[in-house]
Design brief:
Layout lengths: L3 H53 L3 H61 L6 H52 L6
Helix pairs in contact: 1-2, 2-3
């Protein structure tokens, strides 16, 4: 049987976890805003520099060269931006996952403590029911661990795929920018 003190302690722990989760989410949003502000500032500066260079172009070939030179860094910057977004989301997700995992582990320990107390106080003849409950708890813990491992593997595969796609896109842009343009 749970006491009022145990319920109060559990409630306090849940509130602390909720605040921790909120803090981690806020930190992720803060990093995202910071990244977007940095990208906006850099983009404005680069647009101004490019506009000056376009206005200073003396002939159409120089103008075409300026435009071609603009494409490759833009693709690389877009890929880098995507990578930063992914890193922020991944780090935030990892932190939230750690908090959630800690909560689940703590809940499992508390539940097992309750089961152990129930076993100690169980009337004679209920040994089979106790074994059944312990077996069900062990099976649930194993299933949770399996799901966690599968989710981690899926995240690793997704990250590898993201890296490969980013690398391929940047290489394709570099190859396209390196090809000489035919005069019309």
């Amino acid at each position: 049987m749970l006491t009022a003190e145990q319920l109060l302690a559990a409630q306090k722990a849940n509130i602390a976890t909720l605040f921790d989760l909120g803090q981690k989410a806020f930190e992720g949003v803060e990093k995202l805003v910071e990244l977007n502000m940095q990208v906006a500032k850099t983009s404005m500066d680069e647009a101004a520099e490019h506009a000056k260079a376009v206005l200073a172009a003396k002939d159409p070939q120089e103008l075409l060269a300026l435009q071609a030179a603009l494409l490759q860094p833009s693709a690389e910057k877009a890929a880098a931006y995507g990578r930063h977004l992914y890193d922020i989301a991944s780090a935030t997700s990892t932190e939230v996952g750690k908090l959630a995992e800690a909560q689940v582990t703590e809940a499992q320990k508390k539940f097992m403590s309750v089961v152990d107390n129930a076993v100690k106080n169980a009337p004679a003849g209920t040994e089979n029911a106790v074994v059944l409950v312990k077996s069900a708890v062990a099976a649930a813990n194993n299933a949770f661990d399996t799901v966690q491992k599968a989710a981690k593997q899926a995240a690793d595969v997704a990250e590898a795929n993201f890296q490969a796609i980013t690398s391929t896109a940047v290489k394709a842009t570099q190859a396209a920018a390196a090809k000489p343009r035919k005069a019309a």
